[in-house]
Structures are given as structure tokens and as C-alpha cells.
Amino acid sequence: MVIEAPYYHQTHQESEVFLQTFQNRMPLLLKGPTGSGKSRFVEYMAHTTGQKLITISCHEETSSTDLIGRFIIKGAETIWIDGPLTTAVREGAILYLDEVAEARPDVIVAIHSLTDHRRELFIDKLGETVKAHKNFMLIASFNPGYQRGFKELKPSTRQRFVALSFGYPTAKIETEILVNETGVEQDIAKKLVAIGGKIRNLTELGLTETVSTRLLVDAAKLIQSGLPKRLACHVAIVEPLSDDTQTIESMKDLVDLMI
Ligand code: ADP
């Protein structure tokens, strides 16, 4: 069975950077706001390189134990179960730590020796050091905290990675993404992209996060499945961005003028 490649539109030579980083056995950090294509890019590159991909969505409770592994009691026995990081290190998979800055600090400590020339993982509970398989690759994503509410990554951690920035694609590319991803008409896709661009420029709205490609894709999907265009934009673009009545109203007015 041939598995189709996930759809990904390159925006800034990121495939080349990925391939060279992979060949040099370096870890990669993807920086950018939510919904900017980071995860899709990793899925696409894993497919392109034929690598197994293990994704961990980090949150405040994610600890090194969750990643490395733990002993569990099975009947009368205590057995060790490898966590996803250990599995990836042993088998040579791509480990993608999505939103790594959200995880507990011991996660950063655990991955340190994997991000330098040692490429090894120390499993303290087993007293064992595992050398990474030659194809093991560590990728982390991180949402730079320009705004309040996001955690930062320490410079000493960041400098262990090759880093790629993800932002908003050009209008032409973003229109193509909407058409390819949802089948929406070119003309509607263009309007959605224009709405996205306009709201992104309205810094006075004071949004914590602004319109991502994901939100535009969501609006296009709803339009494609029959929801009236303005309503689709209200629920997929405007409402997810703010809870402030006035901000919502201004964005809705703008949308209604543009589509
Ligand atoms: P992130 O991981 O940055 O939060 P995702 O990779 O989940 O974002 O992207 C959200 C959605 O946006 C994807 O499911 C896809 O529909 C769309 N998308 C964003 N950028 C691209 C791109 N360059 N090529 C194809 N689809 C994209």
C-alpha cells in the first residue's frame, strides 16, 4: 500500500534545511505561532525521508518520566516500559516535541545529552546510557512569547538547535494552500487570505495570537461544506481569536465588508 504524502507547501527552503540538519545529525527547533504549518511540515518531512514519526504534545505536566519510561507492576512482576523518547532513540525515529517550552524543566534536562555530540540518553532508573540510533532526530517546536502567556526557552537550550522560523506565507502561497487543502474556489480563497492579512495588520486589536493559516483553512472548509461565507468567517476566524465583545464586533464588520 502506498501512503500518500501529507500536503505541504514549502515557504522558505525549509525542506533543504531539514535534510541537511538530518544528515548532520543535528536537532531542529521550529519557531512560530500556532497554526503556521510546523506540525504539517514535520509530517511531510518524515514521509519524505521515510522516517517513523513520534509526536508528543507537551503541556505543563509533561515530565521526563513520560518521555523516558517507567516501571509498571504487572502481576507479580515489575517491568520497564520505554517511553516515546527512548523508543525513538533506540529505533531511530523522529521525535517531535510540540510546544516544548510548555513541558516541565526536567524534560529539557533529559534531552540535553541528545542535542550535542554525545547523542545519548541517560536512563537514570535503569542506570543505562543509550546511544542514539543513527537515524534518530529530535525536533522541537516553540511559540515565541512576544505576547503574555507563553513560556520562554532559555538561550542555553535554544543554542543547541538549528532553528527555523515559521510565519505567515505570502498571499499567493496562502491562497494556494487554502485551495489545495480544502478545494475552495480560488476567488473565495483570495478573499479569506485578504481578511487574514487585514486582521494581522490591525495591531490595535491587541490580539494575543492573530489569524493563522489554520483558521483560514477552517473557514474555507466550512464554506466548502455549505456554511454561508460570512458565518463561516465569524465562527472559524473571529470567535476563536477574542472574547472581547467590541473586538469581535470590529472584526465581524471587517469580515462582512470583505466577503
Ligand atoms: P502548527 O503545528 O504550527 O500549530 P499545523 O502544522 O497544525 O500548525 O498547521 C495548521 C494547518 O494549516 C494545517 O493542518 C494545514 O491545513 C495548514 N497549513 C499551514 N501551513 C501550511 C503549509 N505550508 N502547507 C500546507 N498546509 C499548511
UniProtKB/TrEMBL annotation:
Gene3D superfamilies, alphabetized: P-loop containing nucleotide triphosphate hydrolases
Record has Nucleotide-binding as a keyword: yes
ATPase dynein-related AAA domain sequence ranges: 27-161
Gene Ontology molecular functions: ATP binding; ATP hydrolysis activity
Record Pfam families: AAA_5, CbbQ_C
Domain CbbQ/NirQ/NorQ C-terminal: 174-257
Keyword ATP-binding: yes
This protein's UniProt keywords: ATP-binding, Nucleotide-binding
Superkingdom per UniProt: Bacteria
PANTHER family xrefs: DENITRIFICATION REGULATORY PROTEIN NIRQ, MOXR FAMILY PROTEIN
Family membership noted in the UniProt record: Belongs to the CbbQ/NirQ/NorQ/GpvN family.
Protein name per UniProt: Nitric oxide reductase activation protein NorQ
